[in-house]
Amino acid sequence: MTTRFVTPSDSAVRVGDAERGHAADHLGQAFTQGYLSMEEYETRLARAFEAQTAGALRDLLTDLPVAQIIRRDPRRRAQRRAAARRGVRMHLGAYLAVSVLMIAIWLVTAVFAGAWYFWPVWPILGWGIGIVSHAIPVGACARRTTAGS
């Protein structure tokens, strides 16, 4: 979805629901980032949905740094990628710890009870599929953003 920025020459152009929706999205981002109070956000949002022209929508957004700071901040993207990688590492660490614990329990029961069926293979396999399903999208996203930079 691309954002349409209105130029000063087309202030009188009528807007539709799509433009009003984009303005509402920008206002929501500004509110969540702390640029607007709740009262001001509600007021501007109501004015955005009542707006008939591009100039009216532009007036609601001109004092907000939404397009520059919120959407294109490379530090924020880097932090999100780092958090996703940390999440995969934590998931993998828990997986390995529980796998070792299950193998230890199996070994103790096998030695003392003589039950040598390796039952930990099933939870290890199932959880391993979950780890791979978590790691692949994170890795693909990291490769895609690295290639795009």
TrEMBL record:
<dbReference type="InterPro" id="IPR025698">
    <property type="entry name" value="2TM_dom"/>
</dbReference>
<protein>
    <submittedName>
        <fullName>DUF1707 domain-containing protein</fullName>
    </submittedName>
</protein>
<dbReference type="InterPro" id="IPR012551">
    <property type="entry name" value="DUF1707_SHOCT-like"/>
</dbReference>
<keyword id="KW-1133">Transmembrane helix</keyword>
<feature type="domain" description="2TM">
    <location>
        <begin position="76"/>
        <end position="137"/>
    </location>
</feature>
<feature type="domain" description="DUF1707">
    <location>
        <begin position="13"/>
        <end position="65"/>
    </location>
</feature>
<keyword id="KW-0812">Transmembrane</keyword>
<keyword id="KW-0472">Membrane</keyword>
<feature type="transmembrane region" description="Helical">
    <location>
        <begin position="94"/>
        <end position="118"/>
    </location>
</feature>
<dbReference type="Pfam" id="PF13239">
    <property type="entry name" value="2TM"/>
</dbReference>
<feature type="transmembrane region" description="Helical">
    <location>
        <begin position="124"/>
        <end position="142"/>
    </location>
</feature>
<dbReference type="Pfam" id="PF08044">
    <property type="entry name" value="DUF1707"/>
</dbReference>
